[in-house]
Amino acid sequence: MPSKLLHISLAMLLLACTVQGKKRMSMLEEEQDSILAPHEAINFDAREGNHPVKYQHNGNHRAVREKTWKAMDDTYDSIYKSVLGDGGMRDPRVRVALESWNFCNRVGSEGGTNMPSPRFADCAQIVCGSPLTSKEQYEGAACEVEQLVNVADDGLKSGQTFPQGDFVDYVQPDDYAVQKELYLASLCETTSEAGPWHFWMVMLKNGNFDIHSGLCSSTASSPSQSRPFMFYPGKITTSSVASGRYLNPQMTQMPAGDKESQNIPQLGPIVSRNISTASSNAAESMPLPSIVQALLKSANPVDNLYRQQQQEQMLLPPFIANKGSFPCFGHGCMNHPRVFHNWSKINDQEGYTNSSEFISSQTLSGSFFGTYDLDDNGLANQTVSLDSSYFSVDWSKDPQSGSWLFHHVLRVNHKYPWLMLYLRADTTSGLSGGYPWETRGMMIKVPESPNFKVKLTLNVLRGGGSASQFYLLDIGGCWKNDGRDCDGNTSSDVTRYSEMIINPSTTNWCHPGALALCPPYHVDAKTKEHIYRNDTARFPYTAYHYYCVPPNAQYAEEPFNVCDPYSNPQPQEIMQLLPHPEWAIHGYPSAKGQGWIGDSKSWTLDVGGLSQRLYFYQDPGTKPAPRRWTSVDVGTEIFISQRMETAEWIVSDFDVLSADC
Ligand SMILES: *[C@@H]1O[C@H](CO)[C@@H](O)[C@H](O)[C@H]1NC(C)=O
Ligand SMILES: *[C@@H]1O[C@H](CO)[C@@H](O)[C@H](O)[C@H]1NC(C)=O
Ligand SMILES: *[C@@H]1O[C@H](CO)[C@@H](O)[C@H](O)[C@H]1NC(C)=O
Ligand SMILES: *[C@@H]1O[C@H](CO)[C@@H](O)[C@H](O)[C@H]1NC(C)=O
Ligand SMILES: *[C@@H]1O[C@H](CO)[C@@H](O)[C@H](O)[C@H]1NC(C)=O
Ligand SMILES: CC(=O)N[C@H]1CO[C@H](CO)[C@@H](O)[C@@H]1O
């Protein structure tokens, strides 16, 4: 059954593509005699959107109030079409879901009797008129909110029967969460000519990892506790990858001031036997995390004490990290947050009025918020104490542009020093970036490099401290090292991430003294020439924060370092960039500080062009994989903060525009 599901959705995707291809022609024709911009046109198509809705209260004959706003700008390239259901965030309907993940993008344990499966949704629209009012007559009549998802849906927990549909009530929380997402999506599904779409996805992730929990097996080895995934239970093969490589340095920092970690042994870095090849001359001038500094110094023969420690540690099995490598305050540290839901409501509290002008000014707003600190006394009253971790995402309409304003807050504390909060546009079907199972989302067609762009307005209000790796786009895709498409086999599928970090405090870990943290080469913006990382005169080290190879890369070029094998369900490759003139030709920030606090900006990013240019690992002699990106998201990863920090930002106008199909 699972693989059948997958086939169906692949077929749907192809169909969506075909339909959109045809539609593009007719839209171009329409555009000649109207001034509709493409994503307006798509929204227009969506108006006939049916409501495969089961919770409609006497709304069958009522008009869903629709409203159009102007296109994002006039310089719209007509070749590029929105691939999002809610292109530019102009749709008046609320379509938003929230997913929470533990360290390895799984659920693990839902945690406690009051904790539902961590998937939630708010799908709402304004309906006007009595049940007998025709669509034309609705103005002047009472309007109210129609909720497509209800409290009981939100509260579903593993093992519980779904109220309707062919969804399986798995007892296993990981499997159930996948089904719950599909179920919520079925309630929220909205049709358009280009295909059905579901929701924006708010993603929350807890970076705590308790290595004794039995959760999160390594994708680099074959621990017996590894659990096959439901769609393609591929056996995880043993591989020798780990020897001679060292762990993602991100994994080996600990917050120094963490009182609760006193019982955790101090940092013992996982080191490489071949670390010396990573170092030419230790660049002491570079501000690097202490662990990276230590690794570099280890190459210095003078540092005998360190070398001795290093040799002892080499005897440890690879990646059986010292407990101190991962933040965890103790039992239960990998919990999901308590999520509160302010359901979307009409901003005008009266709910209706006589004036059609006033009616047309009515919009919806709502929020999700909560905390990971389940022992917070305020939770009974839906309040979060100031010293607890905190997140919120609220949505409301910008009255000028008509775009949704997604306002985010994320706060880390000593118990939860590593949290992530993103707003994702995920593919509407198939495997999503990083997840080897069916997913639902906003992208009707998966964008492929090089012919796609992303538009968004980002207003960073608070940065979240120096550990906040704020991503002015994080894109996720999947292909195998031999270039084949991913098929759900978690031993050979590789998630590929590329992220532009705009926090100006983030430094380039990649530098002449740490070539293992750089990709093997850089493709020059102008000449397209490959500049090798050992070409210290020409390689743009400051354009790269950090690069790591997939744990199952058989032929990675030495020196290299392996991506964290625990934090994703399958091997991953990560390419993290920093603002630099080399990326500016694609519309990205050219210098640190651009787009940061006080510099709210509307970006048109040639994400397709940039991602086509980047290095990604493939086995030698294999055909280059088409680079398809099943997730495009924006947000921050506060990465092991040593103190309490808060990030706050607003995303609007988000669109993904493709020239393919
Ligand atoms: C998964 O991939 C591995 C490595 O390529 C391969 O050995 C195995 O046969 C695959 N499993 C399935 C079910 O295709
Ligand atoms: C609308 O206004 C008219 C006249 O001002 C009034 O007679 C009518 O009752 C109003 N309708 C509603 C629904 O308030
Ligand atoms: C949720 O709603 C309550 C009551 O209206 C309000 O006080 C609170 O600020 C809202 N929370 C968020 C995060 O929007
Ligand atoms: C929660 O609210 C109730 C009623 O307003 C109040 O009595 C109680 O003290 C509150 N509890 C906390 C922990 O704030
Ligand atoms: C630099 O790296 C390239 C590619 O790995 C290699 O062919 C070349 O010999 C290296 N040059 C030096 C000076 O090490
Ligand atoms: C222990 C280990 O992996 N050593 C390797 C270090 O790199 C040299 C040359 O690249 C190899 O020959 C060693 O086997």
From TrEMBL:
Domain of life from the UniProt record: Eukaryota
Residues in DUF7705 domain copies: 82-221, 317-657
Signal sequence, start to end: 1-21
Keyword Signal: yes
InterPro entries with a match to the protein in the record: DUF7705
Keyword Signal: yes
Keyword terms, alphabetized: Signal
PROSITE patterns xrefs: PROKAR_LIPOPROTEIN (PS51257)
Protein name as catalogued: DUF7705 domain-containing protein
Species this protein is from: Ceratopteris richardii
Phylogenetic placement of the source organism: Eukaryota, Viridiplantae, Streptophyta, Embryophyta, Tracheophyta
